[in-house]
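Journal club prep — side note

Before the paper discussion, L.F. wants everyone to see what a predicted structure for a comparable chain looks like in token form. Sequence:
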Amino acid sequence: MPIHIDHPYNQRPLSVVGDEVRPLVRAGTHELFEISGPEGSGPPPHAHPWNESYVVLEGKLVVAVDGQEHILSRGDVVHIPAGVTHLYKIAAPGTRFLATTSGDKAGAFFADVDANVPPGVPTPDSLPGLITVAKRNSLTSPLF
């Protein structure tokens, strides 16, 4: 079977709720993204039909799973099963982390947000569009 070599750093990162999401691997069975953003950024509480794991490369990340907060530092890993409500918040400048997901739906969601929701942290004006995109991609949230 031939291999495929890609150059993801030659592509523009996706803008997703104030963060930069760079697709690194989109293999059908799994995806890998590098995520960075300003301190305090991150999505609202949500759940989705794919498993997700985070690996902190630099900085600090607060992850809340079912309402319980965890502070992750460089080298820490967390796994979030499909369907579990969670969120993350970037807790220090310069934070970067990897997110790996099962299947191929997370990348489609991130691309949909990038294409259809104004960049930056959600505002009262952009929130309805974000909710529409989230629902279209099978995400749920206690907020909607």
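L.F.'s comment for the group: The longest helix spans residues 105-116. Keep this in mind when we get to the figures.
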